């Protein structure tokens, strides 16, 4: 994240804000006059600008106007000891994000700056989202090799075999090969040969005549006919049954095939692109894949790198998937810190790009704040004690991370905010003691006829939670709220209601 710039001729104000923002892990850069700010803008820019109005060497209102000319989306907070109507009106007319009168409460000033940072990050995400998105993303040398190969094949309709681990994007490459080929105007038809039962796969590929088998009420065109004039993508070709491999070889050899139950030969003007995560040479040696079919498919081979082989692409992929998830869910896009990106880049990603996309979807739903920090990442990405204490996000065999939806019993957790949904259930050994104590205390109060048992225990519970969080964060309310998974306004209201600030 870029630093927050503070402009004030009062050194004590700069010092107080610098220290307060440093405690919140927010980078800061200070200036004593507007002239230095304008000079610094030639080579850098802030995330948020906090400026005094009356300073030697220039007015904060004039600085606001000049900064807005260069950076119209930059949030600017104007502060002044002269809290008059004209200053406030001038600040807002100039496009200020907020007006902060002096003297101010430091925690409230930090909270305001946090809001401005969130706004700035949303603006930058919006700008990224408005940019045209390339069909494939990747700056890593291995991905650049793939892009070059697609370019070289753009004028060809030769058969291509794409290899790579599950979730690495093989169908995306197949679609790109089709889109940049002479057959781009024709259909692109995809079929996963591993996902269809053996008894149905033949009919799926080649179609069937009416009455060919029980249930065949009408004639059905198969995928080869549907792809006529275009491209047929055969995913997971290594799992194709052996007897169907013979029929596929015949189509690739002379372009002819028969529907199931048919006697009339049909011709297929189809380009075949196949893909597999398996080692086909090994499958041939084991007798599970026809050698002649392998050589028919292996005309041009493209190997897709695993995500761990292209870690430098992870930041751009994360930002893209976060923006995509936000569009799909109709919510504000979230931003991710460099520290969280570093943690993501260190993960092995057995499910490759598909797993990364699902993690970004999980973060869009489950991360408690607009800015994703390392502590917000799914448990399987968190090393050490944090990972062992948390229940991992389930990952299916293909690497897809699953976000669990809370049941009705989890309604209370839902009301507590996104962090409560993400919080793991405590282990039985750790939770048993205090739950038993709670049971004994609630029984004692109920038997004694206490008229407000619920309110009494709830106040004690909330007080203890907030006390513990504030002790852990050394009194920093914003951080305490984040750790508890509640909003900053919520913790302030609770502290007042519970009388904790007395």
Topology, number of strands: 16
Q: Estimate what percentage of residues fall within beta strands.
A: 5-15%
Poorly predicted regions are 128-132, 384-431
Number of helices: 22
* Alpha carbon gyration radius: 31 Å
* Helix vs. strand class: alpha/beta
Under the CATH scheme, the architecture of the largest domain is 3-Layer(aba) Sandwich
Distance between the termini: 36 Å
Major β-sheet profile: 5 strands, parallel
Query: What fold name goes in the CATH topology slot of the largest domain?
Result: Rossmann fold
In total, the number of domains comes to 4
> For the largest beta sheet, what order do the strands appear in spatially?
2-1-3-6-7
Envelope shape:
elongated
Helix-residue proportion: 40-55%
How would you sum up this structure, described in words?
With 502 residues, the protein is α/β, with parallel strands linked by helices. It has four domains: 4-130, Response regulator (Rossmann fold); 141-305, Rossmann fold, CATH 3.40.50; 311-422, Orthogonal Bundle (Helicase, Ruva Protein, domain 3), CATH 1.10.8.60; 433-498, Homeodomain-like (Arc Repressor Mutant, subunit A, Orthogonal Bundle), CATH 1.10.10. Helix content is 48%, strand content 12%. The chain has 22 helices and 16 strands. The chain has helices at residues 11-23, 34-40, 60-70, 85-93, 106-130, 141-152, 170-179, 198-206, 223-226, 242-254, 280-286, 291-297, 314-329, 338-345, 352-366, 384-389, 411-415, 418-422, 428-447, 453-472, 477-484, 488-498; strands at residues 4-7, 28-31, 48-52, 54-55, 58-59, 76-80, 98-101, 160-163, 188-192, 231-235, 256-257, 266-267, 271-276, 300-303, 335-336, 371-372. The chain has a five-stranded parallel beta sheet with strand order 2-1-3-6-7, with helices on both faces. Strands 9-10-13-8-14 form a five-stranded parallel beta sheet. Helix 1 (11-23) links the parallel strand 1 (4-7) and strand 2 (28-31). Helix 1 crosses helix 5 (106-130) and helix 20 packs across helix 22. It is elongated and about 90 Å long. The relative contact order is 0.07. The model is unreliable at 128-132 and 384-431 (pLDDT under 50).
């Amino acid at each position: 994240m870029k630093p927050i710039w503070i402009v004030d001729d009062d050194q004590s104000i700069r010092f107080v804000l610098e220290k307060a923002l440093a405690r919140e892990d927010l980078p800061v850069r200070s200036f004593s006059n507007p002239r230095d700010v304008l000079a610094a803008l030639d080579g850098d820019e802030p995330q948020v600008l906090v400026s005094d109005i009356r300073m030697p060497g220039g007015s904060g209102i004039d600085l606001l106007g000049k900064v807005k000319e260069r950076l119209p989306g930059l949030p600017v907070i104007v502060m002044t000891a002269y809290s008059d109507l004209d200053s406030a009106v001038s600040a807002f007319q100039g496009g200020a994000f907020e007006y902060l009168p002096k003297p101010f409460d430091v925690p409230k000033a930090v909270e305001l700056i946090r809001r401005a940072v969130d706004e700035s990050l949303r603006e930058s995400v919006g700008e990224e989202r408005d940019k045209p998105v390339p069909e494939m993303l990747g700056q890593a040398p291995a991905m650049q090799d793939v892009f070059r190969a697609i370019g070289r094949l753009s004028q060809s309709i030769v058969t291509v075999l794409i290899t790579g681990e599950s979730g690495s994007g093989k169908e995306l490459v197949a679609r790109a090969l089709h889109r940049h080929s002479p057959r781009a105007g024709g259909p692109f038809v995809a079929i996963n040969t591993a996902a269809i039962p053996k008894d149905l796969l033949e009919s799926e590929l080649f179609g069937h005549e009416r009455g060919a088998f029980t249930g065949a009420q009408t004639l059905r065109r198969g995928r080869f006919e549907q792809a006529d004039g275009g491209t047929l993508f055969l995913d997971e070709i290594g799992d194709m049954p052996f007897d169907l491999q013979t029929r596929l070889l015949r189509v690739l050899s002379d372009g002819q095939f028969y529907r199931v139950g048919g006697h009339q030969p049909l011709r297929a003007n189809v380009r075949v692109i196949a893909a597999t995560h398996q080692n086909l040479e090994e499958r041939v040696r084991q007798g599970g894949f026809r050698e002649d079919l392998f050589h028919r498919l292996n005309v041009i081979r493209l190997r897709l790198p695993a995500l761990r082989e292209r870690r430098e692409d992870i930041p751009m992929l994360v930002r893209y998937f976060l923006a995509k998830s936000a569009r799909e869910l109709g919510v504000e896009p979230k931003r991710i810190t460099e520290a969280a990106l570093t943690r993501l880049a260190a993960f092995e990603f057995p499910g490759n790009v598909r797993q990364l996309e699902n993690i970004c979807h999980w973060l869009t739903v489950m991360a408690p704040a607009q800015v994703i920090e390392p502590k917000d990442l799914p448990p399987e990405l968190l090393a050490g004690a944090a990972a062992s204490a948390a229940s991992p996000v389930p990952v299916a065999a293909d690497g897809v991370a699953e976000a669990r939806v809370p049941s009705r019993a989890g309604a209370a957790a839902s009301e507590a905010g996104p962090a409560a949904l993400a919080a793991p259930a405590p282990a039985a050994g750790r939770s048993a003691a205090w739950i038993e104590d709670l049971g004994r205390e609630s029984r004692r109060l109920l038997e004694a006829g206490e008229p407000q048992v619920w309110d009494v225990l709830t106040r004690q519970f909330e007080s203890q939670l907030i006390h513990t969080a504030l002790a852990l964060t050394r009194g920093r309310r914003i951080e305490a709220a984040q750790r508890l998974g509640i909003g900053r306004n919520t913790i302030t209201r609770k502290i007042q209601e519970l009388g904790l600030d007395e």
